[in-house]
Design a protein that fits this description.
By secondary structure, the chain is α+β, with helices and mostly antiparallel strands. It has four helices and two strands. Helices cover 41% and strands 13% of the residues. The chain is elongated and about 55 Å long.
C-alpha cells in the first residue's frame, strides 16, 4: 500500500530574492504558496499588487514603475516555473 506524509517537517519556502534599493525582500514561489494563496490568485480576489504587497512594503512597491513591476512579475513567474510544476497561467 502506498503512503504519503505531508507537513511532517515544514520545508523551507522557495523564494525569489528581490533587491530594491538597499533592501532585499523574499517573495515565495508558486510551489511554496498555500492552497488558499493560490485560490485567491486564480479566482481573481487578489491581484499581483496585493500578492507582492504582502512581501514588499506597500510604499516600496508603490515606488516602482510599471516597467519595474512587470519585470518583477516576469522574474517571479520564471523562477516559479523553474522551481516547481505549478504554473500561474497567462
Amino acid at each position: 500500500m502506498k503512503e504519503i506524509t505531508l507537513n511532517a517537517v515544514p520545508e523551507e519556502r522557495k523564494v525569489l530574492k528581490v533587491n530594491i534599493g538597499k533592501e532585499t525582500y523574499s517573495v515565495p514561489l508558486t510551489g511554496s504558496l498555500s492552497i488558499r494563496e493560490m485560490r485567491a490568485m486564480k479566482d481573481g480576489t487578489e491581484d499581483g499588487f496585493d500578492f507582492f504587497g504582502r512581501y514588499i512594503p506597500p510604499d516600496v512597491l508603490d515606488s516602482l514603475t510599471m516597467d519595474e513591476f512587470r519585470a518583477l512579475n516576469d522574474a517571479w513567474r520564471e523562477a516559479s516555473r523553474e522551481q516547481s510544476d505549478v504554473d500561474m497561467g497567462e
